[in-house]
């Protein structure tokens, strides 16, 4: 227990045995993990009295304490108050924390300070500064930085491309995001499942359903297997367009591939006036691939009477409720930035 630990520490100090920096760093780290944030800050404050100079491990532990306690307002004070040289890992953590804490301007300034200190940024540094610039509304500047990164580091991680595509979509620049993705694909730059999902999401939001489906098929050709987010996005898009043939095709693929359907997509599919689509829903249900909340709501019989009853029930619930789909929240579901 922390109380017992402090009792032992007090006994040692009374006998002239004072803690060294290593012990203080361990105390800060352990107290933070146990939720004793105030005590962790007290240990840090005692360093000056003990004539101990904080090092990079102290810095890392204190950053963790600030973020675990959600006292993000202390981050700028920490940066300006410590005369130590953090390493790149710590700097990248700070970039991320500045962004999460709602200080994107601080993240940009800190990134510039990193460069001035001679740090060579890596993919995490780039992710941090791109996210911060976009959050500040400086999307054009972020795009210029992105282009500079690609020129200087042609093998940049797929996450970098994904961040830029996602931020362009968020700002409403669907066509620019699509062009960026196509250019990256044409130049054989690294693109992963998340990159494809984000690009498909942008195409759907931009009303380009055919191109979204073409990209969905391209994923398979490039050996990037679509996941349940990919399928639910495309399926929701075709439901919105009332393309019953494509809905049936995708539902069959989901049955064959054991792909789960999410609840927002189910809400859209269930309202389609199509008995064959309904029967495929039953197959998904039998495979345990529908959301648990609706797993038992479908009748078990594959007959017209059951379908008619089910359709009538849907009409009383929410007629053609095409409001929310899985694609609306894709950026939160598949991509975590900064």
Could you characterize what this model shows?
There is one protein chain. With 338 residues, this protein is mainly α. Among the domains are: 1-84; 229-338, no CATH class. The chain is built from 19 helices and no strands. It has helices at residues 2-14, 21-33, 37-49, 56-68, 75-81, 88-100, 104-116, 123-135, 139-152, 158-170, 174-186, 193-205, 209-221, 228-240, 244-257, 263-269, 275-286, 304-317, 330-334. Helix 14 (228-240) runs antiparallel to helix 15 (244-257) and helix 14 runs parallel beside helix 16. The model is unreliable at 303-338 (pLDDT under 50).
Brief overview, please?
With 338 residues, this protein is mainly alpha-helical.
SS content category? mainly alpha
- Share of residues in strands: under 5%
Say what oligomer this is.
Answer: single chain
Distance between the termini: 35 Å
Query: How many DSSP-defined strands?
Result: 0
Question: What form results from the Cα inertia axes?
Answer: elongated
Rounded Rg: 27 Å
> Unreliable runs, pLDDT <50, ≥5 residues?
303-338
**Total helical segments:** 19
Helix share of residues?
55-70%
* Largest sheet composition: none
Mean pLDDT: 79
Encode the helix/strand succession as letters: HHHHHHHHHHHHHHHHHHH
């Amino acid at each position: 227990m922390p109380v017992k630990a402090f009792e032992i520490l007090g006994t040692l100090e009374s006998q002239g045995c004072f803690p060294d920096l290593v012990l203080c760093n361990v105390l800060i780290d352990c107290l933070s993990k146990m939720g004793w944030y105030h005590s962790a800050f007290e240990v840090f404050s005692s360093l000056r009295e003990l004539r101990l100079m904080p090092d990079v491990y102290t810095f890392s532990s204190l950053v963790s304490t600030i973020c675990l306690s959600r006292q993000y307002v202390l981050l700028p004070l920490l940066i300006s108050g410590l005369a130590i040289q953090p390493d790149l890992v710590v700097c990248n953590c700070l970039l991320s924390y500045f962004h999460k804490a709602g200080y994107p301007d601080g993240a940009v300034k800190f990134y510039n300070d990193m460069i001035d200190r001679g740090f060579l940024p890596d993919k995490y540094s780039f992710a941090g500064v791109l996210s911060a610039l976009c959050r500040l509304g400086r999307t054009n500047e972020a795009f210029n930085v992105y282009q500079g990164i690609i020129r200087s580091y042609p093998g940049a991680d797929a996450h970098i491309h994904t961040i830029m595509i996602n931020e362009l979509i968020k700002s409403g620049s669907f066509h620019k995001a699509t062009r960026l993705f196509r250019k990256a694909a044409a130049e054989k730059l690294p693109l992963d499942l998340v990159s494809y999902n984000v690009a498909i999401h942008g195409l759907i939001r931009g009303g380009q359903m055919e191109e979204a489906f073409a990209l969905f098929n391209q994923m398979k050709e490039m050996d990037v297997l679509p996941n349940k987010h990919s399928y639910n996005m495309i399926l929701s898009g075709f439901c919105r367009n009332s393309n019953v043939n494509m809905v049936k095709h995708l539902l069959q693929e989901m049955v064959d591939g054991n792909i789960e359907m999410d609840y927002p997509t189910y809400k859209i599919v269930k309202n389609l006036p199509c008995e064959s689509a309904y029967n495929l829903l039953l197959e998904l249900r039998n495979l345990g691939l529908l959301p648990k909340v609706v797993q038992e709501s479908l009748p078990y019989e594959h007959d017209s009477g059951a379908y008619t009853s089910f359709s009538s029930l849907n009409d009383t619930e929410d007629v053609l409720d095409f409001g929310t789909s899985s694609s609306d929240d894709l950026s939160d579901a598949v991509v975590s930035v900064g």
